């Protein structure tokens, strides 16, 4: 039986080819270096699961950026590491300094655990967060292919590679000039994407001995707002979903001693004491203001929801969120290669990118008080008298209220990230048999964030509200006076807010070749070194504590570390059909010490149509600069915190059971240890009949000392597991809590990757069908040592959702100048949370289950015009809307839907035109 398809299938370490790729033209067999190994070999000889995506396949699928690309990979996590949900996730694990950035997260282990390479070498981490490579910095228009290693690779590449490796391979010897443009518009409006790119090259490396290539791409993506999509709706009471906020554009009035409502009020004929009221609620007119509704107190289990909010309006701020930020991005890369002779060549790469993203959040919510001096005065022109509804209302006293301050505008941040990398390298052969490579590179990434609307100085805002000139009770059709708007503008802060910068200087080299012969074949080896210096700076341009609800973070200045790594690898043909790969790497960090990580893998081919493969390895993840050195912030928890341990021993004592004030520290932890992992794969590749092949790879990962950011509330709630973070005085009373980054327990995850491929010919047509799927059997997590591991697969989670099954399937057909591609992206459903984070009361018949989601894309390509390629595609062909989920934006961005799983753009038309001049 011929093994042509088997060879193609296991090419680039033996994995089934890309799900969307077209049938490739035969290539001359040559020795190449493949992701996951430093030994050059014939491509089909590898043993690890690597998926390959060609640029042609990416372009025909209508993919215009690397974030979209990673979302088509079944092994990629379904998480909050994209530009939409990643920067709006609430809670301890939120990343509030990565506005406009996107990250890779294989196996759902997070961006820190996925290594992103460019031509097999590291690139700089994002300038603000410093945690991982921003995918926006990758020049997608200049790549030749993308290799995704679905296995740990710390033994080859060092830290970050626990989840796997994404290696972007640039074109290296391009001659000619081509221009292309892409337009992608949505049927329902918003989210228009535009792209123009140019690729040019001079010189033939083989004939002329030199080549220079330049590529430049400019993308412009329009804003897509929740208001433009009906499914983005946090007010669906029939499904148990309603907003739990009374901070409304038409303010609700609060109770308080010395204020108009006093400490509480009663309604005629009702003995219940209520704590909040709103004029529109009392009139039954909450919905007269867009986005507002009557507070659905009957949907909340907490009894205080009734006493607090029965006579208040609510506000669906989830429907005001931005689904996709407006983004403008420019990438450029240049590569020049000089062939010294047949054995040696030198080259340089210069990479630059600029991404500007405008992040937008809802207006600031303000709760006024007498203490802050921002209560509405009795003599104010807009003083609201509710005495006709509430008999005890005292109109001789000031009003305190809760208000969504819409006149200040949306909180808007402008994030500009610039990346630059230059590489000077040499590679070739020594003595005709030893392959070598050397490289010296410098990478920098800077991010600057400016506040451009919606933010202001706290003291100025409070003083302005206290004048009574600003009206928090605007009726429909009304607007603030010119004097009020001038006063509002005088309180704003507009300007530079924070900045960050990372740098990486790297000198690396390796040598590989055959060292001796065995009867079963040649034994090959590789050895190399990797020397790096990494730095990180993060600072505030203004005192963030003075800006109301600012996204401020503690400054981190002058952090740096040196990394010295040495590694070796050997490929041994144990038998004629069995080869074993052995690798070990030692990394020595100037701040966390040294770690040694080995790896062993095998490839066994007993017959021409069967390959068995597997690996076992150890990995590590070094803590980031932010996790180690972020400035310690001392803050204060609100009144009434309970010390569960102390209160049980001292019942009724307010020093334990109702702590009046409790300080806590949060920020970096210089005592963090690296995360460590043990993992492995075991797989099979078969070709039962000509034209059909399949691969199945089982994988397992165990991680210890997981680095997590914990709030003081979480520390206090888990006092039995974290006593060392609760600092007590000699009397046993809590002095303060140490929160922030800690080494927690760990996780265990198991699953399998399935690859299928079939192809053939019929009546002059060539067709290829493919599937790339990932089954996650288990993802168990324990936050702290001593806690039992908890299963997370198929269950709603506020950070990542671990889906049971995801796949990308496609079929392509080609004949002559025509080709077509039909693609399906599918993900299984999962158990939803109880409405409103478990605090709500589900309606009768409510089933806490989010349905599965699938999206179909169809494209056609025509090459009949000279030097011209035209591709037209319809993405989300059947206009599939996201499935309903009962969460609101208090857990993760998206009200009634989830951006981590589904596509909000709806049906769109994509047109790509490419012209080659020579």
UniProtKB/TrEMBL annotation:
One term under GO cellular component? cell outer membrane
Q: Does the keyword Transmembrane apply?
A: yes
Where in the cell?
Answer: Cell outer membrane
Report the residue ranges that make up the TonB-dependent receptor plug domain in this protein: 47-165
Q: How does it sit in the membrane?
A: Multi-pass membrane protein
Q: What are the boundaries of the signal sequence?
A: 1-21
* PROSITE patterns recorded: TONB_DEPENDENT_REC_3
Q: Which family does it belong to?
A: Belongs to the TonB-dependent receptor family.
- Could you tell me what this protein is called? TonB-dependent receptor
* Organism of provenance: Pseudoduganella aquatica
